Predict the 3D structure of the following.
Amino acid sequence: MQITPLSIEGAWKVVPRQHTDERGTFLEWFAGASFVEATGQSLDLAQANISTSAAGVVRGVHFAELPPSQAKYVTCPAGAVLDVVVDLRVGSPTFGQHEAVVLDDVDRVALYLSEGLGHAYMALTDGAVFAYLCSAPYAPGREHGVHPMCPELAIDWPTTDRLGRPVTPQLSPKDLAAPTLSQAQADGLLPSYEQALAFREQLKARQGGR
């Protein structure tokens, strides 16, 4: 397993080692010891989610208030998605920037997003399956979003699916009503970079004391 940081601090890409023979494939998509060594913190599993999406469906950009926010470890076990990490932490050197990574059932890459980061993805195949390991349970009153088509984010969403067929982004009513990055910042919804770093240090201290 190879775990490398993305261009946005607090996010990592995980490339598993796959073992394939005539029976199929086996891999570890999460390994606690390797994860701690690479990221410096453990992942306290509080909730595990699975979604399925038709090609063109966009989910996000979602984030949760700090503390405790919600760290996510995500992968696509079937089909393919374009996964996007967005830095929503005010004061971060990469505030407003994003990095996109294809997650699919070929390379079986996973991503880890620490607390305070925004997350979105677009399904590139029909029936794309998306799996999340989350550090905190879903809390509706603390969940927020930024519109995935916000010009300030400038995310280059695909216009075709994995087969080259044209797709039109499909958003939920909630995501369609989400504010722009500037609106979310003006409304005081976004976490600060210092707040995110401080919270992660608190987690490390707490985990180290176990």
Q: What stands out?
A: The two ends are 26 Å apart (CA to CA). The mean pLDDT is 96.
